[in-house]
């Protein structure tokens, strides 16, 4: 803060801070407060609001878990969608980590600077296109008569076209592609700071490749792994466009359920409660990653 005052002066710094404060309050804090207020009220008509039926309640939060029978493994539809979303977001995060780790290591420690710059540019260029257009391109690729099935059938890998868009496969593929860079860049930034001499020393001492990665590379990359997992999981769990375009009624995402309660059922209190349940789960995942990888906020900020 003192650096801002020194560089820009008192007047300019206060003006910038005031602008940021107004923006955060108007665009983030106040809408959240409104949703919090909605989430603790029953769904009433305009005439009933403020009347005897209008009172604070936890009914909207309890609605997600009502009817859950762990003994017989029976869940209501909304809770089933919630579990599917958490499992799907976790799987997308794991796939992104598996795909991005070797690529990030190659870019950071194996490739020449010129090749690294070229490959990073190749990775970034497709993301200059709007997310909806990129998702529609996957819709075309994964269609029943689309290019993917044509190529796989020509290579003899499949005998009949696969309906990628009738299950979870299309959603997982689309989300993995959409959020790859959010795993790639934190990993690359963390691995780039690793001293190559540590790898060479471990290799000279006879350590196999897998042990070098397990004992040297991965511990150093823990902040990058934590940040990548956090970003991919949160974005995947809160994604709406990809599951809406590439999914099917049987692969409904929790964000689609929230959307339907808000705009189709016009039940804003229940939609708000569901949104905050999803937010709470994302915060819990962030804390879990920080504890699992034993990193703090300062490590993540690096």
TrEMBL record:
Give the way it sits in the membrane: Multi-pass membrane protein
Matches recorded under SUPFAM superfamilies: MetI-like
Q: Where is the ABC transmembrane type-1 domain?
A: 82-289
Q: What is its main location?
A: membrane
Keyword vocabulary terms for this entry = Cell membrane, Membrane, Transmembrane, Transmembrane helix, Transport
GO biological process terms, semicolon-separated:
transmembrane transport
Q: Which CDD domains match?
A: TM_PBP2
DNA repair as UniProt keyword:
no
Q: Does the keyword Transport apply?
A: yes
Subcellular locations according to the entry: Cell membrane
Among the entry's GO cellular component annotations, what is one? plasma membrane
Q: Which residues cross the membrane?
A: 12-34, 86-107, 119-144, 164-188, 225-246, 273-293
The Swiss-Prot or TrEMBL record describes its family as follows: Belongs to the binding-protein-dependent transport system permease family. CysTW subfamily.
Protein name, entry field: ABC transporter permease
User: Which source organism does the UniProt entry give?
Assistant: Alsobacter soli
Species classification: Bacteria, Pseudomonadati, Pseudomonadota, Alphaproteobacteria, Hyphomicrobiales
């Amino acid at each position: 803060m003192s650096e801002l005052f020194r560089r820009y002066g008192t007047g300019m710094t206060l003006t910038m801070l005031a602008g940021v404060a107004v923006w955060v309050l108007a665009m983030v804090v106040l809408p959240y407060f409104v949703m919090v207020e909605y989430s603790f009220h029953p769904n009433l008509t305009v005439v009933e609001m403020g009347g005897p039926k209008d009172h604070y309640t936890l009914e909207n939060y309890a609605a997600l878990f009502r009817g859950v029978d762990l003994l017989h493994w029976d869940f209501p539809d909304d809770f089933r969608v919630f579990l599917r979303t958490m499992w799907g977001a976790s799987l997308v995060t794991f796939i992104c980590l598996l795909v991005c780790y070797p690529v990030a290591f190659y870019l950071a420690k194996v490739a020449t600077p010129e090749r690294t710059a070229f490959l990073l540019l190749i990775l970034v260029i497709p993301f200059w296109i709007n997310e909806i257009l990129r998702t529609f391109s996957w819709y075309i690729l994964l269609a029943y008569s689309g290019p993917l099935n044509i190529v796989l059938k020509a290579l003899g890998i499949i005998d009949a076209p696969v309906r990628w868009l009738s299950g979870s496969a299309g959603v997982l593929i689309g989300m993995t592609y959409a959020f790859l860079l959010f795993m790639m860049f934190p990993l690359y930034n963390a691995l780039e700071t690793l001293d190559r001499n540590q790898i060479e020393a471990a290799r000279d001492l006879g350590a196999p490749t897998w042990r070098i990665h397990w004992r040297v590379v991965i511990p150093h990359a823990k902040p990058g792994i934590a940040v990548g997992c956090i970003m991919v999981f949160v974005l995947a769990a809160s994604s709406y466009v990809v599951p809406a375009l590439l999914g099917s009624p049987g692969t409904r995402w929790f964000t689609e359920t929230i959307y339907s309660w808000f705009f189709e059922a016009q039940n804003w209190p229940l939609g708000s409660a569901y949104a905050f349940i999803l937010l709470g789960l994302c915060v819990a995942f962030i804390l879990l990653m920080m504890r699992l990888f034993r990193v703090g906020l300062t490590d993540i900020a690096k």
